[in-house]
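User: Here's a chain of 180 residues. Predict its fold as tokens.
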Amino acid sequence: MDIQKRCQWCGKPFIAHKMTTLYSSTACIDKAYRAKKKQKLKEQVEDEQQITLPIVESIGDKPYLTPKAAKLLGVGKTTIYRYMAQGQFKALRLPARTLVRRSDLEAMFENAPAYVKRNNRKHKIDSDSYTMKEICEKYEVTRKVAMRRIEHFDIPKIYEGRNVSFSKTAVDRYFAQLRL
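Assistant: Prediction complete.
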């Protein structure tokens, strides 16, 4: 059965073989699909823009707060519970809820130590030790050869944070043969 229809995308007349056919070609189907997808995305963005942030309930002068309200410090709820476990402030655990004294939260700021900027520079390793890079450059060996020799002669490692160094005297003693 052939039915005369008009394409919903381009508007050209076509002969449809089914009652449910809406478009004249696969190109029109693809274009309509992309346009519908684009419209849906646009509506999502508009909906997200219309959604306002929830109004935080004013905590006013309440002397006791829940950990959820204490979250106003700008950290997660789990961090608040960790602070309570560490004893940074006291909390009262009741069967239905946990309460934190507002004065304890404020006292955290009053008793806070002075702000010290973190030093992100690498640790300086002693002049009495070599790094792996220095060993490889000095004795002209690969890391693999250096590690094998270090393990074979049980040269002690010196850990400073994530940096590892090795005693200069021990390295010079056991790697001296490599220079010959």
